[in-house]
Amino acid sequence: MRSNFDSPLRVEEGVVEACGELDWDSGEREAHVTVTISQKGEKLVGSASSPPNFASGDGEWMLSVRPSEATRKFKKGAAHAVGVIHTIRDDGVDVFQWEQDVELVPDAVDET
Prior knowledge:
The protein has strands at residues 9-12, 15-21, 28-39, 44-49, 54-55, 60-67, 77-89, 92-106. The protein is mainly beta. The chain has a seven-stranded mixed beta barrel with strand order 1-2-6-4-3-7-8.
């Protein structure tokens, strides 16, 4: 399994809609995705995990990442994203992890 974060990522009402493509390897039948987004300048971090898990053949994953502090919001600007995917195969579990810098952009109606 391989993936990357789409960039820019959309921010809607302070919540990041994190997503990316799923590049399945032969024999993988299910994927569990966990992501963490941090904004250094805002001193803010948030995480999200599936379920629902993603099934073989799904072309993309998407998770809503809320800030860990309920009263805070992600803002437009630079962020750092970390992802971990556990894939289930008939013969076991594989892990793929990656990180990348991303840009957060507001939804057209939400100019945060």
